[in-house]
TrEMBL record:
This is Fe2OG dioxygenase domain-containing protein. Residues 132-229 form the Fe2OG dioxygenase domain. InterPro entries: Oxoglu/Fe-dep_dioxygenase_dom. Keywords: Iron, Metal-binding, Oxidoreductase. The keyword Transmembrane does not apply. Belongs to the iron/ascorbate-dependent oxidoreductase family. Transmembrane segments: none annotated. One of its GO terms (molecular function) is oxidoreductase activity.
């Protein structure tokens, strides 16, 4: 039996590239990130009770910090399938959950609120109640302590990430730095550390580090994020973000120029319709915003240009009340084209005509107006439909769309 590789499949059917792009974009249906974090002004005091010592006050005093250290061991972390101590990687102090208690009864619902933030931030598609956070350890960083770049191994079944709550305890330094797939960003726990808390969460496969603490103490509760998934492949991970991006890049690069020249532009319909005033990247919502962030990455990699536009489509069809609903003619025009920052680039007095072949998705959606003409001469009964929408235009690197 002949084996058809994906590459051959692309070559034999250029429409499949549009399908790849369409399918991938349709799966990016909500904003998502592989790491998130923010200051929390409404954090409750967990009421940490250290066995043999008593309640730990918040912000943590130097005296209570010494009490924690006296009962701690060097922090451990997952390396492959093992849990190891290596002070060249991390030299913070660790308490295990059986060495302390969280006495505040409302702490559980506070953690659930954080899990809901993670669920939204990661754009998880499962129900919120499929995700939970299991207490793993309490870490204390003294001045000079750090955690070198590492990713978290799955120390619990169906663990997909880590949630941390940095408790009130003034410190400088100690910021979290995340890097994945050539992108990196940092989050400063110190900024809210005097009296407030902050949370951070990341997918287990994201490389992260804690920069050295330069003064004070950094006190963090660490939770494993668990996904009650039946199917192991459902587990969220940062590499899912990569694979969506890779598929899109493949889609845009996959045209085989000698046989099927790359179209000079492609049009992708947005989920929402935007007025001219809100036609700019920073006003996009929901799935549109999420898709834009992916398309931006893809544009940087492939050299395509991105524009936003309002589109009008006018179709004349045979009237379905009398005959099969056959399309007789279609006109598609862009009525307002802008760069991502909202600057208009089309000429107000010139119409930009679009070939329907360049639409990634040719389904019409709901028309906003229709007109049934009845029988006219030889043409039979016709009906006209008008559609409108907002679109992304992805223009190939070496071509210009005539506007
Ligand atoms: O201290 C932190 O904020 C992160 C700790 C960490 O990465 C870990 O325990 O694996
Ligand atoms: Fe970690």
């Amino acid at each position: 039996m002949p084996i058809v590789t994906t590459r051959e499949a692309y070559i034999s059917c250029p429409t499949s590239l549009k399908l790849i792009i369409q399918k991938t974009l349709s799966e990016i249906d909500r904003p998502s990130t592989f790491a998130c974090g923010e200051r929390l002004d409404d954090g409750a005091n967990p009421g940490l009770l250290l066995k043999g010592h008593g309640l730990l006050g918040m912000p943590l005093s130097d005296n209570d910090a010494r009490a924690i250290i006296s009962q701690s061991r060097q922090s451990r972390f997952g390396r492959g399938s093992e849990t190891v101590v290596d002070t060249s990687i991390s030299d913070s102090w660790q308490l295990d959950p059986d060495q302390f208690q969280i006495r505040n009864g409302s702490w559980g619902s506070f953690i659930l609120r954080l899990v809901a933030k993670v669920h939204a931030g990661f754009g998880l598609k499962c129900q919120k109640d499929r995700v939970s956070a299991e207490l793993y350890k309490l870490l204390l960083y003294q001045r000079g302590a750090f955690f070198r770049p590492h990713s978290d191994s799955e120390i619990a079944p169906c663990m997909f990430g880590t949630l941390t709550v940095c408790l009130p305890c003034a410190h400088e330094g100690g910021e979290l730095v995340f890097s994945h797939n050539g992108k990196s960003f940092s989050f400063k726990t110190s900024e809210s550390s005097d009296f407030d808390m902050s949370y951070a969460a990341w997918c287990a496969d994201v490389l992260h580090e804690v920069k050295p603490v330069t003064s004070g103490h950094r006190l963090v509760l660490i939770y494993n994020l668990i996904h009650q998934s039946q199917v192991v492949t459902d587990l969220p991970s940062a590499s899912v973000f990569n694979s969506e991006q890779t598929r899109l890049v493949k889609g845009f690069r996959g045209w085989d120029p000698p046989r099927y020249p790359q179209p000079e532009y492609l049009i992708h319909k947005l989920a929402h319709q935007y007025s001219q005033a809100s036609l700019r990247a920073d006003r996009l919502k929901g799935a549109d915003l999420a898709q834009l962030s992916f398309l931006r990455e893809v544009a940087a990699e492939t050299g395509i240009d991105l524009y936003l536009a309002n589109m009008e489509k006018h179709a004349t069809k045979s009237d379905e009340r009398w005959a099969r609903n056959q399309v007789l003619s279609v006109d598609i025009v862009l009525t307002y084209v802008v760069t991502l920052d909202g600057s208009r680039v089309d000429h107000p007095n010139r119409t930009v005509y679009i070939k329907s072949n360049n639409l990634i998705d040719t389904t019409d959606g709901q028309h906003y107006k229709e007109d049934h003409r009845g029988f006219t001469g030889n043409e039979g009964a016709t009906a006209e439909y008008w559609y409108s929408g907002t679109v992304f235009c992805n223009i190939g690197p070496s071509t210009e769309m005539e506007i």
